[in-house]
Structures are given as C-alpha cells and as structure tokens.
C-alpha cells in the first residue's frame, strides 16, 4: 500500500497552517499503523508545534485542528497519541483527551 507523504490542497483549514511542521513530515508515521519510528524531521516538527501549545488557548487551537484534520488525512489516533513518546517530547497537555474531545 502507498501512504501519502504530502498534504493536498484543501486537506487542512487555512487556520491550521501553522501546524504544517507536524502534519507534513509526520504523515507516513501517523497514517501507517506499521510505521514504527517517526523521522527526525517529523520529531523536529512535532517538537516545534507541541512547544507552541503552552497555554489554554493555544492547546485548544491545536486540538481543534487535530480533530478537524485527522479524518481527511487518515491519521490514526493511536499513532498521534504515541508521537510525543516516540519523539521524546514532554507535552504540557494530555493529547489523548485532546483528540477524543
């Protein structure tokens, strides 16, 4: 099976563009249940994006973008919840509650 590696126009609302450093390089990891380790580029993007989620408003915006984009990008929720641990990123919020909200 071929997994997408780039985002297509319209797969992500413009208000979520700032999260491209997470979405674009992490697509192979987030859509493929058998993709074991995220790439260094994915981890760098995830660290950048998760680092900005440092207050309630920023966390809410990230959560909203994740919930809106996950279905169109075919992200696996379990892979998203594993991403911070796989990249050794300490989150300031529980991402599992974020995407199940």
TrEMBL record:
Domain of life: Eukaryota
Gene3D superfamilies (alphabetical): Plant lipid-transfer and hydrophobic proteins
GO BP annotations listed: lipid transport
Pfam name, any one: LTP_2
Domain Bifunctional inhibitor/plant lipid transfer protein/seed storage helical: 10-90
Stored InterPro entries: Bifun_inhib/LTP/seed_sf, Bifunc_inhib/LTP/seed_store, Plant_nsLTP
UniProt GO molecular function: lipid binding
Assigned keywords, A-Z: Disulfide bond
Family to which the UniProt record says this protein belongs: Belongs to the plant LTP family.
Name this polypeptide is given: Bifunctional inhibitor/plant lipid transfer protein/seed storage helical domain-containing protein
Lineage: Eukaryota, Viridiplantae, Streptophyta, Embryophyta, Tracheophyta
